[in-house]
Design a protein that fits this description.
homodimer; mainly alpha; 9 helices; elongated; 0% strand
Chain lengths: 202, 202
């Protein structure tokens, strides 16, 4: 069976497949990828083995889809923001909100991604890393646009990677006490970032 | 066998035990904790099964020691800095350097910690989290001291957690091109933090 290396867009994921992916992500996050059998995934999602394999090709395919779907979602949302929001501080705030909204809805997926990325084949790991680079580039651009417009100081790539790490790490500690709190946290993060990148400091 | 819940200090770890812990951390990081047998650890460290069990009690004990030793090291170094460095920006810079030095020397250990923390018993997981809280408190204090002395603005706990996340996430992407680079990165991080916490921004 040839290895499927394509990350799926939201519209390419059927409702059934999404059910299976969500059930699998929760099981993988709770028990570890290696300890979960594919029939357990089918049971949790309400599919028999035959119908399960109609929607997925293999357990590794499923792992790859889980690790890439939320990244594609992040990238698509960020591209839309980049296209529509020209004001730099507003763009940073919207990127921050969009990250937190998607992160908050994808915590099992992010847990699986950070814990099991070594379980992927080399080519697929590269595929996941490529998506992370694509997302990072959108943030690099908001800062370089900001520096060019002289509304932000120029940031080094290390600084931008540090800032993104702050976002990605947050899935480990942000608790589920509702959308209001997540919005407030996104605003806190954006403020921290905009202050760190502001021009008028010593 | 009663569960050992005590995190070891550097001086409580014999040279032999340290060898075993380092070999195990590398194996666990490369292959996953679940896929590594205890005899494989012994072989990699150059110990037979009998002498191995003279130094460790069980595979889970070893995992717990790996996950806690670098945190104890971080905490001890940070306490020393806190005691000796009263100037707030200098303290932030030294905490930053100390984190990066220890992180850079403990990447297999951190990989294992973030990937396998669910493999610990509830009590031990709490032990690891308690060490993270202790370390976080030292950073909370440098910022509250800074706000009291009016050299930094007051930061919320969310902001301090965000900043620490930036540090902890860095083990995933900082490459091993030498101590000079790590020092420079530590300085970049400290500058970012001090700018984010500066008073004289809008």
């Amino acid at each position: 069976m040839p290895e499927n290396l394509k990350a799926l867009n939201a519209e390419e994921i059927s409702a059934s497949k999404r059910l299976i992916m969500e059930a699998a992500a929760k099981l993988f996050a709770d028990k570890g990828y290696g300890s979960v059998g594919i029939s357990e995934v089918g049971e949790a999602a309400g599919f028999g083995k035959g119908s399960l394999y109609y929607h997925i090709r293999s357990k590794e395919d499923l792992l790859f889809d889980i690790m890439t779907a939320y990244m594609v979602e992040l990238i698509d949302a960020a591209h839309t923001i980049e296209k529509n929001v020209k004001d730099i501080p507003a763009r940073v705030r919207e990127l921050s909100q969009s990250f937190m909204d998607i992160m908050f809805a994808s915590r099992p997926e992010m847990t699986v991604c950070f814990r099991e990325v070594h379980a992927l084949t080399e080519n697929r790991r590269k595929g996941v890393l490529k998506l992370h680079t694509e997302y990072q580039n959108i943030w690099l651009r908001v800062f370089s646009d900001g520096a060019r417009q002289r509304v932000l100081r120029p940031l080094s790539k290390i600084e931008v990677k540090a800032i993104l790490g702050m976002y990605f790490y947050s899935f480990l500690w942000i608790r589920s006490d509702g959308a209001v709190k997540v919005r407030a946290i996104a605003e806190d993060f954006a403020t921290l970032v905009l202050r760190a990148a502001a021009i008028n400091t010593k």
